[in-house]
Structure formats: structure tokens, C-alpha cells
Specification:
The chain is α/β, with parallel strands linked by helices. The chain contains seven helices and ten strands. Strand 2 and strand 3 form a beta hairpin. The model has no long low-confidence stretch (mean pLDDT 93).
Length: 214
């Protein structure tokens, strides 16, 4: 990913607090893990300038890396609005993938664009361990789509997520990433150099709470 885009997106996410760093008062994830970082990219939809930066960056990334894309598929639910806007920019069909098939009606899991035999790109807001986006990729492949790759807004760059994507033979291009964000956050005073060390230690091993004692 372009370093300038990664930096600009990181700045924007920090400014609107879509990504929030709090090493001294960590967040507790659903898994029980104590985390110094919290990400809610849904907030980007509320800020037109940030939203424009993100959607145009996703569109340009698809053009650069996945030029033969025939459809844009959002992940449910966070990826749907981004996929819709990007598909408008690129003038491509759009659809989305549910977390599971509906229990009524046509019992669809994939809505919108009919993906069988088509080359598609998945639009995701956040990559952590990779589990949810890989479920989307699997559903699309089962439906006969050729999944060219994933374009996401942000990645934690966690080893587990990177490994799982590699094993599934799927490429993810993130607009920004953990490394860039922590550099920008430290440079602009969101965190101190000591807190940057703490946050980086967490990212390398989220299961080890010893970063709290640094």
C-alpha cells in the first residue's frame, strides 16, 4: 500500500477517534483480552472528508491491484456501505455477504450481485485475526466466484491474521496498518514513546498481558 495513503488514513482515523489508543486504560475485548487499541471504522461514515478519502483510496487500490474486478462485495455489516460507495465510484455491480444464510424467503447468504463465474473483490473495514473475512471469501468461492482479494481500511497486522490469509491463498491490501498508525500517533502526541512501546508489545502477542507492566 502507498505509504502516503497509509499515513493520511491513519491521521484521519485518529482525528475522528475511529481508532483510539489507551494503553493506560485498556479496553476489554469480547474474548477477555486487554487491549490498548480500539477500532470502530463505522465512525468514518459520519465524516464526509474522511469518508471521501477512504472510499476513493479503496477504489484506486482496486484499480491498481485488481484491475479485472467485475464486482465489489461488502462484508456484513461494516463493509456494506463502503462497498456501495466504492461500486458507485468504479461503476461496478455491488453485493454483500451475510454472516449466515437467511432462515426465510430465498434463504440467501449472498445478496445483490450474482457472483457465479465473476471476479470479485471483498471490501472489509478491519482485519484482525482474519476469521470473519475468510468466512466471506469461503462463501463467495462456494458460490462460484473468483475472489481476487480483499481491500480493507485497517489491519492490526496480527501474525494469526496474516498466516490465515496466506493459508487461504488470499491477498489483503489495507489502506493503513498498525505500524503506520502507531508511528503517526506518537509523532502527533496521541501516545508517548513509552506508550508506543506498550502498544507494539501488545500487537506482537495479544495473549500476553505483560505489556501492561512495561
Amino acid at each position: 500500500m502507498n505509504k502516503n495513503i497509509a499515513t493520511e488514513v491513519a491521521k484521519a482515523l485518529l482525528e475522528i477517534k475511529a481508532v483510539f489508543l489507551s494503553p493506560s486504560e485498556p479496553f476489554t475485548w469480547a474474548s477477555g483480552i486487554k487491549s490498548p487499541i480500539y477500532c470502530d471504522n463505522r465512525l468514518t461514515l459520519a465524516y464526509p472528508s474522511t469518508r471521501g478519502l477512504i472510499e476513493n483510496s479503496i477504489a484506486s487500490t482496486i484499480k491498481e491491484y485488481f484491475g479485472d474486478c467485475e464486482g465489489v462485495m461488502g462484508t456484513s455489516t461494516a463493509g456494506i456501505p463502503h462497498a456501495a460507495i466504492v461500486s458507485e465510484i468504479l461503476d461496478l455491480p455491488m453485493g454483500y455477504v451475510r454472516g449466515g444464510a437467511k432462515s426465510h424467503g430465498r434463504q440467501n447468504q449472498i445478496e445483490g450481485f450474482q457472483v457465479k463465474g465473476k471476479k470479485v473483490v471483498v471490501v472489509e473495514d478491519l482485519i484482525s485475526t482474519g476469521g470473519s473475512c475468510l468466512e466471506v471469501v469461503e462463501a463467495l468461492r462456494d458460490a462460484g466466484a473468483v475472489v481476487l482479494g480483499i481491500v480493507s481500511i485497517f489491519t492490526y497486522e496480527m501474525a494469526k491474521g496474516i498466516t490465515r490469509l496466506q493459508e487461504a491463498n488470499i491477498t489483503n491490501i489495507s489502506l493503513s496498518n498498525f505500524t503506520t498508525l502507531t508511528e503517526v500517533a506518537c509523532e502527533h502526541g496521541y501516545i508517548t514513546p513509552k506508550e508506543k512501546i506498550m502498544v507494539t508489545a501488545f500487537q506482537k502477542n495479544p495473549q500476553d498481558p505483560s505489556w501492561l507492566d512495561l
